[in-house]
Amino acid sequence: MPIEYKLFCEQNHIPYFEHSEFSEEVINQADILYMTRVQRERFTDLMEYEKVKNVYTLHNNMLEHSKDNLRKENVAMSKMSDMAMTIEELRSAAAAINEAANWLAEQFGDTADGAPVEKPAAKEEKEPDLKLENVRAVLAEKSRAGHTAAIRTLLQKYGASKLSAVDPKHYEALLKDAEVLDDAT
């Protein structure tokens, strides 16, 4: 919180608390939420930025149980993260509607025109595809454990200078290569 806000509170005997943890519990108890965004341009080491860029991300759903009179100061909602979440929710809703339609068709045995209902082909169960966020989390943890140089070498092995430039088809192999890195001592 800016020093002038703290001084104002102290001069006017207004109690305040600062939290460095970021959780819905803290948000739900807050009267004022003051946040700044993590600015990529302020980092000289991209790996350091990658470690912290999603740590303090505020999404609309995190405010669902907050106080009605919560003041949000300098809060930059993550529009891209919210968009990704909305897309995922829409996909889940579409899947649920499709399942409900299949159940109804199965229950009633045929369509309105009397033709039998074709069952959709069973989808083969496969492991969910790795996402950039999953790989980033693992590599950030390895970097915090002292393997930043080794991670850079691994990225170069897959033809990239940064994780976002790695072809997603290489994520699994990249993670297997990263698994062998032990905690630095």
Structural notes for this entry:
The protein has 185 residues and is mainly alpha-helical. It has helices at residues 3-11, 24-29, 46-52, 79-108, 132-157, 171-179; strands spanning 32-34, 71-73. It has a two-stranded parallel ribbon. Helix 3 packs antiparallel against helix 5 (132-157) and helix 5 crosses helix 6 (171-179). The protein starts with a helix and ends in a 6-residue tail after the last helix.
Keywords, separated by commas or semicolons:
single chain, 185 residues, mainly alpha, 47% helix
- Strands of the widest sheet, in order across it, are 1-2
**Class computed from helices, strands and strand pairing:** mainly alpha
Shape verdict: flat
Please, how many helices? 6
Give the averaged pLDDT, no decimals. Answer: 79
Q: State the order of secondary-structure elements, H for helix, E for strand.
A: HHEHEHHH
Number of strands: 2
Helix content: 40-55%
pLDDT < 50 runs, ≥5 residues = none
Strand content: under 5%
Largest sheet: 2 strands, parallel
The Rg value, from CA coordinates, equals: 24 Å
- Distance from N terminus to C terminus (CA atoms, Å) equals 36 Å
